[in-house]
């Protein structure tokens, strides 16, 4: 049977190798290594912090956050689930994974929110980045690993960088969407009073887009967690490594334990970030605001009373 | 009167090739043919008008006639395709971003049809928005916002969120936001269209009342002729992006420039038939030299009126307004003296047609109906005038009969 390969074969793999090894690596190695510096710094810091905080303290703080953002039931879940993680002896790995995931999310937010804002402000820019985002989301996550290893080597930091790239699209997309969804007449109102672009962004667009942006952050977080097993293939530690070694040794129990740890973190963080997103919708007055409002209204009503007395 | 705003030969074409459309317009092609041939929309064509300081200038027209486009060009939200828009001599159309921002901050404020309030801010912070943008400090901002809220009667709601307010109250916040910056010009794009008729009437009356003391230059957009006639010192009527007539309420009704305007004003004939008495109420006047400030305020509160006539031996000598009395000295025992009264008040003889009251209503004061001897018999409140226009023909007939006037007869007389 005839096939096109009989006539011509294309050395595609060689071309890519040539491009990466011959061009990217020699020319941009320095650039890529400087990217590593802040990522490594944040991750190391978070990792040693989480591993330093006593388990009980950490659990209580998480429970408190969950309680404030997502309600009592979620707080109780957080306590039980984290205790379970400790009892299956995965506390340290869990903290490492958490540090990696949070590092990735922090950088996704630092990069993604501004890019999303730019995309919301320019149709042309959106047209350029949309296919890139599509590609980023459709490429199987394994495929990232090859160029990452070539450019950054192996270890936790390259693992986090792969995670950042994989988890970046939702926050960009939803920041863009959130800002575009701000009602036109509110934007017009801001402009009609002479706002600068910056004033409009800070005071009107971002607050009104916050709910959608938080939803994007939630998705980014979940993607980052899902990447933790794959990142472990290139030397990242934490629960992903537990799963991988478990699988490698056909130790189903250990692999499952690692998986359960990841799921537990996912559930807790998901609830908290969803709670945050929902809370943005209603104006819950904080304790501080309530107190301030109390003093303001009492002082102004006192003033009014004085006026009335003078009048009467 | 000083000229505040001047619009000269302003065009707005939506779509790519503006020059082609402009030359097609010059060749006398219509909005429809240009749209059919090129897909470009003519928003506004050859708009020319000037607005004087302290005047309410109403722009009226059907949906799609280009009112919003025109008013948005005045503060640069839409950039004109050609022409000049001069505010105190500065051309908005040619201003760069910085200049435009300066003009917006200092000279223009806008009130929107659907309020456009910020849902994430409290009422006071909404009102203070324009001040915040200008860089006014926090405490001064709050003070000025509260003052503006006081003007629209919403001071107690300063610290609630806008979603908790009714439509009428929300638009008061919108109005207060426009007032807080103390800019000279207020642009109002169908501000009352989204409100219930009753509330709309209240707001119209209140705007006139406010305008009496503020003397702002107001550009007011509406598609409602009654609103236009009563609020407007002058009215421009738009059709297909073109201003077809500019004039006072009387000129528009008496000398419509073309059939389009005439069709608009047809309905208003009923106002020609009805006399002022249909909308009149007891004067409840205060006696000059006897009544005190406190008494005047109490009476107005009881009667739910904004102003009352003061009479001397039955003859009107002035009008006192609630707002003025509350604003100035707090001595409630003082007698109503000349300096507390507005002596430039409108009166008309018996039998005046409702339509002829339009011009007076924009003063925001009640209109007195005086007998031949000059005695005050009845008064017409601006609010009541809106009420008359908003009622259906049947009710109107009943009202006319009550006042001892047969509308059919009147119609026959005018026909
Ligand atoms: N951004 C735009 N792009 C294209 N066409 C537009 C745009 N804005 C307005 N138009 C067109 O310009 C014309 C005038 O619209 P405009 O909104 O000024 O009318 P309007 O008198 O305010 O009507 P309404 O009473 O419905 O508010 C309409 O034909 C409208 O379709
Ligand atoms: Mg409009």
Automatic annotation (TrEMBL), chain A:
What residues form the membrane-spanning segments?
Answer: 49-67, 74-92, 98-121, 142-168, 221-243, 255-273
**Source domain of life:** Bacteria
What's a BP term from Gene Ontology annotated to this protein? Answer: glycine betaine transport
Domain (ABC transmembrane type-1): give its ranges.
94-273
Q: Name the membrane topology term.
A: Multi-pass membrane protein
Q: Could you name the Gene Ontology cellular component terms for this entry?
A: ATP-binding cassette (ABC) transporter complex
Q: What PROSITE patterns does this protein's entry cite?
A: ABC_TM1
Gene3D superfamilies in UniProt: MetI-like (1.10.3720.10)
User: Major location, coarse class?
Assistant: membrane
Give GO MF terms, alphabetically: amine transmembrane transporter activity; carnitine transmembrane transporter activity
Which UniProt keywords are given for this protein, alphabetically ordered?
Answer: Cell membrane, Membrane, Transmembrane, Transmembrane helix, Transport
Localization in the cell: Cell membrane
Question: What family does the Swiss-Prot or TrEMBL record give for this protein?
Answer: Belongs to the binding-protein-dependent transport system permease family.
Q: What is this protein called?
A: Proline/glycine betaine ABC transporter permease
TrEMBL record, chain B:
Instruction: Quote the InterPro entries the UniProt record gives.
Output: AAA+_ATPase (IPR003593), ABC_osmolyte_uptake_ATP-bind (IPR051921), ABC_transporter-like_ATP-bd (IPR003439), ABC_transporter-like_CS (IPR017871), CBS_dom (IPR000644), CBS_dom_sf (IPR046342), Gly-betaine_transp_ATP-bd (IPR005892), P-loop_NTPase (IPR027417)
Query: Is Secreted a UniProt keyword of this protein?
Result: no
- Keyword Translocase in the entry? The reply is no
> According to its record, how does it sit in the membrane?
Peripheral membrane protein
An annotated GO cellular component of this protein is: plasma membrane
- What residues does the ABC transporter domain cover? 5-265
According to the entry, every stretch annotated as the CBS domain falls at 274-336
What does the record give as EC number? 7.6.2.9
Query: Which cell locations does it reside in?
Result: Cell inner membrane
Keywords, alphabetical: Amino-acid transport, ATP-binding, CBS domain, Cell inner membrane, Cell membrane, Membrane, Nucleotide-binding, Transport
For this protein, what reaction is catalysed?
A: a quaternary ammonium(out) + ATP + H2O = a quaternary ammonium(in) + ADP + phosphate + H(+)
Positions of region (Disordered): 390-415
Quaternary assembly: The complex is probably composed of two ATP-binding proteins, two transmembrane proteins and a solute-binding protein.
Q: Which family does it belong to?
A: Belongs to the ABC transporter superfamily.
* Official protein name in the record: Quaternary amine transport ATP-binding protein
What is the native source organism of this protein? Answer: Pararhizobium mangrovi
């Amino acid at each position: 049977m005839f096939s096109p390969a009989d006539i011509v074969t294309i050395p595609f793999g060689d071309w890519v190798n040539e491009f990466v090894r011959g061009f990217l690596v020699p020319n941009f190695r320095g650039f890529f290594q400087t990217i590593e510096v802040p990522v490594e710094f944040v991750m190391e810091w978070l990792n040693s912090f989480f591993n330093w905080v006593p388990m009980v303290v950490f659990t209580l703080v998480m429970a408190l956050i969950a309680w404030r953002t997502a309600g009592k039931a979620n707080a109780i879940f957080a306590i039980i689930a984290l205790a379970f993680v400790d009892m299956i002896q995965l506390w340290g790995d869990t903290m490492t994974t958490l540090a990696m995931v949070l590092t990735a999310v922090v950088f996704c937010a630092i990069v993604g929110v501004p890019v999303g804002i730019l995309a919301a402000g320019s149709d042309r820019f959106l047209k350029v980045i949309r296919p890139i985002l599509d590609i980023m989301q459709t490429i199987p996550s394994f495929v990232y690993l090859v160029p990452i290893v070539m450019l950054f080597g192996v270890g936790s930091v390259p693992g986090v960088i792969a995670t950042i790239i994989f988890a970046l699209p939702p926050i960009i997309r939803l920041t863009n969407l959130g800002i575009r969804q701000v009602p036109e007449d509110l934007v017009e109102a801001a402009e009609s009073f002479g706002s600068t672009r910056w004033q409009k962004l800070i005071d009107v667009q971002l607050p009104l887009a916050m709910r959608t942006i938080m939803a994007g952050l939630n998705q980014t977080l979940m993607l980052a967690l899902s990447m933790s097993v794959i990142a472990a293939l290139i030397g990242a530690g934490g629960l992903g490594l537990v799963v991988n070694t478990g699988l490698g040794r056909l130790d189903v129990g250990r692999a499952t334990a690692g998986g359960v740890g990841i799921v537990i973190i996912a559930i807790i963080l998901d609830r908290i970030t969803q709670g945050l997103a929902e809370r943005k919708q209603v104006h819950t007055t904080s304790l501080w605001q309530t107190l301030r409002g109390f003093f303001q209204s009492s002082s102004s009503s006192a003033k009014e009373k004085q006026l009335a007395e003078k009048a009467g | 009167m000083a000229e505040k705003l001047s619009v000269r030969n302003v065009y707005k074409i939506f779509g790519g090739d503006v020059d082609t459309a402009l030359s097609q317009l010059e060749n006398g092609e219509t909005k429809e043919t240009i749209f059919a041939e090129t897909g470009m929309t003519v928003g506004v064509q050859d708009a020319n008008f000037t607005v004087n300081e302290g005047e309410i200038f109403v722009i009226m027209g059907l949906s799609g006639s280009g009112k919003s486009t025109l008013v948005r060009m005045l503060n640069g939200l839409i950039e004109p395709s050609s022409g000049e828009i001069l505010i105190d001599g500065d051309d908005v159309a040619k201003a760069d971003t910085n200049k435009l921002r300066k003009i917006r901050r200092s000279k223009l404020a806008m009130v929107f049809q659907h309020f456009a309030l910020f849902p994430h801010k409290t009422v006071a912070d909404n009102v203070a928005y324009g001040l915040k943008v200008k860089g006014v400090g926090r405490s001064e901002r709050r003070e000025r916002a509260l003052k503006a809220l006081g003007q629209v009667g919403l001071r107690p709601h300063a610290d609630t969120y806008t979603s908790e307010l009714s439509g009428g109250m929300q638009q008061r916040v919108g109005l207060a936001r426009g007032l807080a910056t103390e800019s000279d010009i207020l642009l109002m794009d169908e501000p009352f269209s989204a409100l219930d008729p009753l509330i709309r009437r209240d707001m119209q009356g209140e705007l006139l009342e406010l305008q009496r003391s503020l003397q702002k230059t107001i550009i007011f957009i509406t598609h409602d002729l009654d609103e236009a006639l009563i609020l407007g010192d002058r009215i421009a009527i738009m059709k297909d992006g073109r201003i077809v007539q500019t004039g006072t309420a009387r000129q528009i009704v008496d000398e419509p420039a073309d059939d389009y305007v005439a069709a608009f004003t047809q309905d208003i004939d009923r106002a020609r038939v009805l006399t002022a008495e249909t909308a009149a109420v007891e004067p409840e006047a205060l006696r000059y030299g006897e009544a005190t400030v406190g008494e005047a305020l109490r009476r107005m509160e009881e009667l739910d009126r904004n102003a009352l006539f003061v009479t001397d031996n039955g003859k009107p000598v002035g009008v006192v307004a609630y707002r003025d009395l509350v604003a100035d000295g707090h001595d409630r025992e003082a007698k109503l003296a000349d300096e507390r009264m507005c002596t430039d008040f409108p009166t008309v003889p018996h039998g005046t047609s409702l339509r002829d009251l339009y011009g007076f209503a924009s003063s925001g004061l009640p209109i007195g109906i005086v007998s031949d001897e000059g005695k005050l018999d009845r008064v017409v409140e601006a609010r009541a005038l809106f009420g008359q226009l908003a009622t259906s023909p049947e009710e109107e007939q009943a009202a006319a009969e009550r006042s001892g006037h047969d509308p059919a007869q009147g119609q026959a007389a005018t026909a």
